[in-house]
Design goal:
The chain is an alpha/beta fold and about 425 residues long. It contains 12 helices and 18 strands. The strands form 4 sheets. Strands 1, 2, 3, 4, 5 and 6 form a 6-stranded mixed beta sheet that branches. A 5-stranded parallel beta sheet has the order 16-15-17-7-18, with helices on both faces. The protein has a 4-stranded parallel beta sheet with strand order 9-8-10-11.
Length: about 425
């Protein structure tokens, strides 16, 4: 997958300070005209990790040493994209700074050595359709004035910060919401008491509760009203839990694992029901439900048509992408639980997986011998990072981009596609 080493030439009119390397964002080439340099962040990141001061800028002109006698030393190599257009990788340094020149040459040559034709399997969105609809509804409502969001939206920190900048207020309780204000209920819903209080205070409510969440709330309420102990099979910490627990006060208990299901205590073993909490992969729940059924043979469960498959489909999509990739780049931060979860999913399919929070963190050796790269986007990924990674990799040779999504469709439930595809 390698190509020729970097060619040394001059960049007339380009000045680079000693101790600095200028990473070219575009290069004026006498033979090809203006060449884009989409891989510039990869070159800059490599230099930065080596302690080199980096500056990004265009190099308007390049010429052979015999044609010019001034300007910075420029190291450059070119390749073709899939559409036949040429791109370049270039870095310049002062011609009297041997250390910077060596660093510039080395960075260009290392990326040139791992350039070639590749496939990229694009990232699936970490946000389900309900979460995305709630964010979009907030943006639209802000056009009419301030919007108070009940709790938090399921969105990246950057997206939430952008909404705040435009007038959204994330309220911890209705005490933070003035009378007559507009209140948005996010996709994970709220407890019924919140709705009652909002109506009593005359708030204008924009209800963006996901239909699947609303369905689980209705089931929990129905089970509790007939006197059942309601077991919620899910995970602690999920934002949706208060909305479901609030529908079955004094009747609901959370069981996260088989052991949790085995520890459930009820007053009447003949009156036990369970619901699956949205946000948990459906395939992770049978062990807990089997443990419940072994103890309570009369156990009643939810309508399978109401199951949320978003988490299942996302997990299976990552596994499928990993199975077809030599390397998976997990977009997120090392300390984020969702990032760690996606990394484990990718590695469970024997793919190499590396976490990056920024495109500049990609290392050349990761791509050696790699012809297929997968992307897995965590909830901690910076907005637009997948697009920036795709653009940077396109500067290393022909890149075909595909998107592989596992999607579960429940017949007769047209109101929402739970897979996020």
């Amino acid at each position: 997958m390698s190509r020729s080493s970097a060619r040394e030439c001059l960049a007339p009119g380009t000045v680079v300070a000693p101790g600095e390397v200028l990473v070219a964002t575009e290069i004026g080439d006498p033979a090809h005209g203006r060449l884009d340099c989409p891989a510039a962040p990869l070159v800059g990141g490599l230099l930065y990790r080596r302690g080199v001061r980096v500056r990004y800028a265009p190099v308007p002109r390049s010429a052979d040493a015999s044609q010019a006698d001034d300007g910075a030393a420029l190291f450059v190599t070119t390749s073709l994209r899939g559409d036949g257009t040429a791109t370049a990788i270039g870095a310049a340094a002062s011609s009297v700074d041997g250390v910077a020149m060596a660093a510039a040459r080395s960075a260009v040559e290392e990326w040139a050595a791992v350039s070639g034709t590749r496939r990229l399997l694009g990232a699936v969105s970490p946000w389900c359709p309900g979460a995305r609809r709630a964010v979009e509804a907030t943006r639209q409502a802000l056009a009419q004035g301030p919007v108070y969001v009940c709790g938090q939206l399921m969105a990246s920190p950057q997206a939430s910060a952008d909404l705040e900048k435009n007038g959204a207020v994330f309220a911890r309780s209705l005490d933070d919401v003035p009378a007559g204000a507009t209140l948005l209920i996010p996709a994970h819903g709220v407890a019924p008491g919140v709705r009652t209080e909002a109506a009593e205070r005359g708030l204008t409510v924009i209800d963006q509760t996901c239909p699947l969440v609303a369905g689980v709330q209705a089931e929990a309420r129905r089970f509790a009203e007939r006197g059942d102990q309601v077991v919620l099979i899910g995970q602690s910490g999920l934002a949706v839990l208060p909305a479901i627990l609030g529908e079955a006060p004094d009747h609901a208990i959370l069981a996260e694992t088989r052991a949790g299901a085995g520890a459930v205590q009820v007053a009447d073993p003949r009156r036990v029901s369970y619901v699956l909490v949205p946000g948990v992969p459906v395939e992770d729940t049978p062990i807990a439900t089997a443990a419940l059924r072994s103890r309570f043979p009369a156990l009643r469960g939810p309508d399978p048509d109401g199951f949320c498959y978003a988490a299942s489909d996302r997990a299976e999509t990552v596994r499928t992408v990993a199975a077809s990739s030599d390397l998976v780049l997990v977009l997120g931060t090392e300390d984020d639980p969702d990032t760690r979860h996606l990394t484990a999913l990718a590695r469970s399919n024997r793919a190499k997986a590396n976490v990056i929070a920024d495109v500049t963190e990609i290392i050349p050796s990761w791509l050696a011998g790699v012809s297929a790269v997968g992307l897995a986007e965590s909830t901690a990924a910076a907005p637009g990072l997948a697009a920036r990674v795709t653009e940077a990799l396109s500067g290393l040779g022909p890149l075909s981009v595909t998107r592989r999504v596992v999607s579960t469709e429940v017949t007769g439930r047209p109101e929402i596609n739970p897979s996020g595809g």
